[in-house]
Amino acid sequence: MAAHNGQHSVIFNATATDYRRAGALGPFLDLMAGNMNNKDKFIAQIQAEIKSIKMNQES
Fold first, then answer.
1. Can you tell which superkingdom this protein's organism belongs to (predicted)?
2. pLDDT tens per residue across span 1-48
3. Looking at the 3D structure of the chain, how many domains does it have?
4. Euclidean distance between the first and final Cα of the chain, in Å?
5. Beta bridge mates, 1
6. Residue 58 domain boundaries
7. What are phi and psi of 29, to 5 degrees?
8. Which is more confident, 55 or 21?
């Protein structure tokens, strides 16, 4: 989806039930749907960053 100002939007359907064609994006879609997968390195990094940000906001 493209805007007239050169920006692009990407829409993720995190509620989809079939990720076979999502490839490496599957674990990210799971994360967006609230399903945590710490086995995936990238997802573990995202979760660590979210935790760090939340801790810094509380300080």
1. Bacteria
2. 556 788 888 888 777 777 667 778 888 888 888 887 778 888 889 989
3. 1
4. 39
5. none
6. 1-59
7. -65, -40
8. 55
